[in-house]
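Dear colleagues,

As part of the handover before I leave the project, I'm documenting each prediction I ran so the next person doesn't have to rerun anything. This entry is a single chain, and its sequence is reproduced below.
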Amino acid sequence: MKKILVSACLLGVACRYDGKSKPDARVIALKDKYALIPVCPEILGGLPTPRIPCEIKDGRVLNCAGEDKTAEYIRGAEEVLRLARIFNCDTAVLKKKSPSCGSGEIYDGSFSGKTVSGDGVCAKLLKQNGITVLDEEQIKELSGGGL
């Protein structure tokens, strides 16, 4: 059975910045066709749950109190990449807009809810290493068995 990485929050794990989860029935249903490997780059990078929200601004990951958390985000991304290699995953389904997991669109760093084109730290590293990154809105090809 093919293994894919999945943001743990999309599977119902309470690991988001606010201490909650974002379970997505479409993502959870992938378990019928794939072995799902849950990951949370922020937790793997050493950040607590709950935690102060972070966004990317000028290439750095800052929380809304102005503290630089870039090192933790990089460490978490590296750990997720390590898991991808251990489990031979070539695909990941990650939470959209997240400063770690966002793929193609992330929050703009103003903490106003506005988004910009770009990738989160983990999504970017996975893509740079040849791993296909999808968000929860893009999984139609997976649920149809296309990947």
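The chain has one domain: 3-143. Strands lie at 3-7, 35-39, 54-57, 60-63, 91-94, 105-107, 115-117, 132-135.

All the best with the project,
I.
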